[in-house]
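Project standup — Tuesday

K.O.: blocked on the structure for the chain from last sprint. Re-posting the sequence here as requested.
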Amino acid sequence: MRFYTKQHKHYCGIDLHTTKMYLCILNQQGETVFHRNMKTRPDIFLHAIKPFREDLVVSAECMFAWYWLADLCEDENIPFILGHALYMRAIHGGKSKNDRIDSHKIAALLRGGLIPQAYVYPRKMRATRDLMRRRNHFMRKRAELFSHTQNTASQYNLADPLGRIAKPKNRDGLLERFDIPCVQKSIGANLAMIETYDMVIAELERDIIKSAKSHDPVSHALLKTIPGVGRIIALNLLYEIENIKRFPRVQDFVSYCRLVKCAKESNGKKYGSSGKKIGNAHLRWAFSEAAQLFLKGNEPGKKYHQKLVNKHNKGKALSILAHKLGRAVYHMLKNQKAFDLEKFLIT
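H.V.: unblocked you, prediction finished:
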């Protein structure tokens, strides 16, 4: 975890919300020179900090509403530090908690060099990353509809399985296989929603692919050289990683991707695990999917996976494979080299 330790004349801590924000400014001696609740408007914010603009640094917690503040500080040439929400909660816990106290504690942590930094994702790719995440959300909702349809078929014990209804051609005559009118209504509603999701997702994918060609086409092409990784998994990896140089070591990268086991240890004794939610859940999902797809039609990969299964179990073998793919992606992007299957299987 990186902490911001640079010294400034003034330190601004903001407890940020949708319509209101509590703003606290401290000087170098730790004295409160400004502390007020105000509307979350750029003009009001700039007017409030105007007397303290000389050598000012601004910090806010990594919540959903920080985009506009980071962009405004960038435009105004004001240093902006994004605090890691989970680590900050551990550092500045207390009996009393409200917006006024929180804003002061953020400013005090900033002044003391104790702000755990989160990554300020650059604005040029931020909107496309959010669009990719929205696409994934729709995909999960679509998958729920498929699951409900299959479960309904099991409830009514249909003679033949429905098959892979994710493919449109396998949905022909699906309604007629259910005899009860209310069940037909339920399945019909599922199919109507699935068709809508299909159209929306296809349109989103076209826009995302078009953006990827202008953002980082080389990295996108490199990621697609991994067996089983198609354009969608590659896009997920591309937009969640953004810049591999922000990870000094491969260990930092796989930890950020949630591909390592968490440990809680003190005085040489292990006390279970903690911090499972620290890291990027989207990258964890992408590498888990990549590990499954890596084995599809890949005979050398299947043999390697079987060795892992024999040594461990099936679930752990896939986790090891996902971790190994994470390390491979780090070196691929850092060295700008395509995936080497032979080297991957022997190292």
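K.O.: great, moving the ticket to review. The beta strands are 3-4, 10-16, 20-27, 32-39, 56-61, 80-83, 115-116, 265-266, 269-270. The chain has a mean pLDDT of 90.
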